[in-house]
Design a protein that fits this description.
Shape: globular
Largest sheet: 5 strands, antiparallel
Radius of gyration: 18 Å
Oligomer: single chain
Structural class: alpha+beta
Number of helices: 5
Length: about 180
């Protein structure tokens, strides 16, 4: 595949330029396997993974070449109830030591970016929709528990840790008591 030049994305400014180019090359190879072209996709937010979205696809490439860095995530996603709403996984693999995942593109706007523009009713509806998905996950916890370690970064180790995290988020977002 012909290598293409790309302007350094702000998420890659602190990364080794050679390694960022390898990740970009892996992304281009993966997208091409699905009939896409990375040049027509936009770079999306993501720190631990480099992500591109467009043309019906979302591709995430692990920024570090650590074997099986995405395997646990893929297993968890495949075990989650469909009501959670994760995009359909189209493929997974590893190239040059970098794990990758391709999913269908789900059009939308990042809630963090949209929040300031939402009316109070739209915010309530968004919170209710998120909470409905959290309840589905909560109900599925017994079957998912074996797929997520107690300190995997997504699940607090104790109820006190969860409460402390919720308090920090509430304070950072300056949520009124009713929203807390």
């Amino acid at each position: 595949m012909k290598e293409f030049e790309a302007e350094t994305h702000w998420l890659d400014e602190h990364r080794d330029p050679t390694e960022a180019a390898v990740v970009r090359s892996v992304a281009a190879q993966v997208v091409a396997q699905y009939g896409g072209d990375l040049r027509g996709m936009r770079r999306a937010l993501g720190i631990s993974n480099a992500t591109w979205v467009g043309g019906g696809f979302a591709v995430r490439i692990a920024n570090t070449s650590v074997a099986d860095s995405m395997a646990a995530e893929v297993a968890l996603v495949r075990a989650m109830p469909p009501e959670v709403g994760h995009p359909m996984i189209l493929g997974v693999g590893t190239i040059d030591g970098h794990d990758w995942i391709v999913t269908e593109e789900v059009r939308g706007q990042n809630l963090h970016e949209a929040w300031p523009t939402l009316t109070p009713e739209e915010r309530r509806r968004a919170i209710q929709q998120l909470w409905a998905r959290v309840r589905v996950l909560h109900d599925a916890t017994p079957s998912l528990r074996l797929l997520v370690g107690s300190h995997a970064g997504f699940i607090p180790a104790t109820a006190d840790d969860a409460t402390a995290a919720a308090d920090r988020v509430s304070a950072a977002l300056r949520l009124p008591e009713a929203q807390r």
